[in-house]
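G., the chain you wanted modeled:
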Amino acid sequence: MRVLQRTKSIGLLAATIAATALVPLTAGAAEAAPSGYAGSCPTAGTITQGWHSGHDGIDIANNRGTPIHSTGPGTVIVSGTASGYGQWIRIRHDDGTVTEYGHMYERLVSVNQRVTSGQLIARMGSEGQSTGPHLHFEAHSSTSSTRGMDPVPYLAERGVRLPCSPGSTTPGTNFTTWGTSVRVRAEASLNAAVVTTLTGPTPVYVKCQKRGDMVHAEGYSNDAWSYIPALGGYITNIYIDHPDAWLPGVNPC
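Predicted structure as tokens:
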């Protein structure tokens, strides 16, 4: 069980932690896009071109007609034809970021339509300036952004590792983490391998929880760990933003 009860807000706690250097900030974290939703795989296929100075997104190639899905919940702000793309779709997500999808042969959503994470929105094609069927996928920090950010870390922060298969991640969230440089481990053990590190508060889907190593951190002690399938590992319940040491409504693993 926890030794103390948290009474401070997430923001104040994070600021205090950073100021006292109890948990070091990850380099470049201030420039990272907010982790505002649990992501879904955009499409299955092979990455044939990555993000670089002359290419604002990534290209994922597969057969014509391969389903394309929204990476997260949001509102369709563009659905139509465009020079270069042939056809394209833009979705503004609830965290303010925007994802962009191009070269499809069939669009299945319209402007102002609300979409959910993982919803089928289009089918892959080769329209516009394209040499074969593929999805050109971009991620932008806002609707006013003129330069796309690297989609690989953008999706990774939302629990999607590329290449991926639609339906392999869990849409929706039920808790939010707090703190910075929070390690996600392969098992509920301090000696287990670190599979990823959360740079800041992150909405997550906790599938189950179990007892593991006792952790002493931030003035708390707890041996409960949460399994987060989208991240492929466990984090101590100390860094789940809930006053109870054992999360209510979450089954044991």
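The first strand starts at residue 46 and ends at 49.

Shout if anything looks off.
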